[in-house]
Each structure stands twice: as C-alpha cells, then as structure tokens.
Amino acid sequence: MWNVHKLRAKLLGYKIDPDELEAYRTVVPNTVNMHIELTKDHKLIATVKMIDGKKLDDDFLITEAKNQDELITMINDLVLTYRHVPEIYRPYFRRILMPSDAKNTKESLTLVKG
Questions:
Q1: pTM, rounded to two decimals
Q2: More confident residue, 102 or 114
Q3: HSE on the CB side for 68, CA within 13 Å?
Q4: How far is CA 47 from the centre of its chain?
Q5: Which residues pair with 50 in a beta bridge?
Q6: Shortest CA distance to 90 belongs to which of 107, 100, 78?
Q7: pLDDT recorded at residue 1
Q8: Ordered alpha helix ranges (H), the chain
Q9: In this predicted structure, what is the pLDDT of residue 110?
Q10: Cβ partners under 8 Å of residue 20, min gap 6
C-alpha cells in the first residue's frame, strides 16, 4: 500500500525513506524565537535567539527578507540547515514552523512547529 510520502517521492523522483523522513521530523524544533529588525531599505532581518527555549550563545543564525511571508520561509530554511536536514527531505518541511499569534510583536517573532 502506497503512503503519501512514498507516492510524492516517486512522482518527484526522490528516493525518500519514509522512516528517515519521520526521523528528520523529530529534529525540527517545536519553537524558534527571534529578534526582528527593519532596515532603512525596508528589509526584515531576523536573528534567532532561542530554539526550544535554549539560548544560542555560540551559534549565530541570521536571515533577511522583503516581507514577513518570505521571512518565515527563510527562517524555516535556516533552521532546517542548522539542524542538518538533507535537501531531499526539505520539501516536506518547507513551512513546518509558523507564527504563533500570541507571542509576536514588531521586534520579536516566535514560530511554532505545525
């Protein structure tokens, strides 16, 4: 019986192991907290401050975007890279982290695992 992941992998030409896919899902953090700055040329710069409630003292994660929607995509990619998720599995996790409305301000943004 085909599951959705195997079917999608076959259609896209990827050799995806569904068990490996689920294993990578566990490395995606539940929460990512960041500081947001608006530059003079109206770009958003996000600096990740915490992942799953742990401060990033030695690691420096930063990305930029033109708008909030693009910023969320860029942060997802940044976190997947930081957590060493291989490129062939990333399409399954592109927008796994989404904003938590209750915790966002103009200067901070929290994404939660969906």
A1: 0.80
A2: 114
A3: 13
A4: 13
A5: 33, 55
A6: 78
A7: 40
A8: 4-12, 18-25, 68-82
A9: 86
A10: 89
